[in-house]
Amino acid sequence: MSDSSGTDSTDIIDFLAGIHAGEHVADLRRNRTQAQTNAQHSFRVLLEAGDADGDSDGGFTDTERYVVAAFVAGLHQGRGVAFYTDLLGDVADTAVVDAVTESVDAGLTVGPYGTYREPDLVGESVGGPEFTVDPRVRGVLGEKLAAALEFAHLLVFHPRDSRPERLAPLAWCWWTPRQVVSLAQLISFLCFQLRAAEGLAAVKAADSTHAPLGDSSVVRRPGTAQEPGGFPPLTGGAFDVLSYPDLHRPTRFVSHSLGWQPWVPPVEEKELTDRQRTALVDPMRAKSAYFRLLAHDPDALEARTLTDKDIFYNVTDGAGRAEREISAAVTSRYNGCVYCASVHTGRALQESTGREEDVQRLCDEGAGADLGSEMWNAIAEASVALTSTPVSFGVDHVRRLRAAGLDDGSVIDVINGAAFFNWANRLMLSLGEPELPARFR
């Protein structure tokens, strides 16, 4: 990366949002110092700490990470396109940059879409295009990066189409479990970062007399529903993709607890290193297959966990816990993450009183359900707009949140909550699946 990029000292979310020190939004953002610091640290560990540890598969290099980042930013069509394309141009030749740009143009569509595997949700399935890297582009980028871009398109636009079979192309291109986790973290982090920047820019713009209502320059191309192509076997690659033919799966969205089973082999509890245990933050997470899976990339896990805790549990000011949880729950419902929705509808119930019917409507009817109050409905609308790809959140959403009684610090908490769960949902959906505990069968 060239010195001219200035990423060593620049807060990337502030930069993308057009926020400057001393401005109202910049000052409010400092109320979540841990979230801000660790979002920036996530950028560094995922974009500027390429895997060059001598593994036989060659690692996950910085240049490969910039290729993926430029592709993901391009698919979002927002504020990050020029930034990430420039970063790629610092380290790659013109042919690679052109190949990524061509892939972005071929992959543009509108999300989220996808097919539910849960029987009671089949009627909510929405078809959409399957992205395949063009053979000529594949010749420029190579099979390993082509598989990564196809996986990235899945996560950006239709993460609920994730299945064990979707990981097999990565395994057969010799992505190791550690590198698959880093790849999923990178894509999912960018889905958070770009949404946070769009949301903060809208808060800043909402005070302008001539503020635009949204970005009218994005291309909203629905695409044509397609069936996925054939996938290689689950076994025989760099790792064996795990699958569970007899798993007891949930049939719908619920507000009670669920289990979760990984498709990528996690680190065994007895094999966790001291660094990995520190990255878990909470020692009890060593019992969780999900967190032991993310521990393959301990730096990314630790930064993500600290970002999460500040966004949702720092209650010295800003939005109430229930409002933050409903932003997470609506985002998860709209993306189709049954596991995350179960956790955060349950927490929304714990943090509120008398909202059982409202939360049940969210589970049953979806993200457009009437949640029983103008504040919750405004949060739901904002969360859906932030979750859409391309992002459709704008100053009209900020003004509705303000009118519902939220100050700007609280609005930023809602933005952060929805943006963060665009990170969390994609990890949960792409790396494993929910399981119905025995007591609920």
UniProtKB/TrEMBL annotation:
Residues 298-381 form the Carboxymuconolactone decarboxylase-like domain. One of its GO terms (molecular function) is peroxiredoxin activity. SUPFAM superfamilies: AhpD-like (SSF69118). It holds the Pfam family CMD. PANTHER family: CARBOXYMUCONOLACTONE DECARBOXYLASE-LIKE DOMAIN-CONTAINING PROTEIN, SI:CH211-175M2.5. This is Carboxymuconolactone decarboxylase-like domain-containing protein.
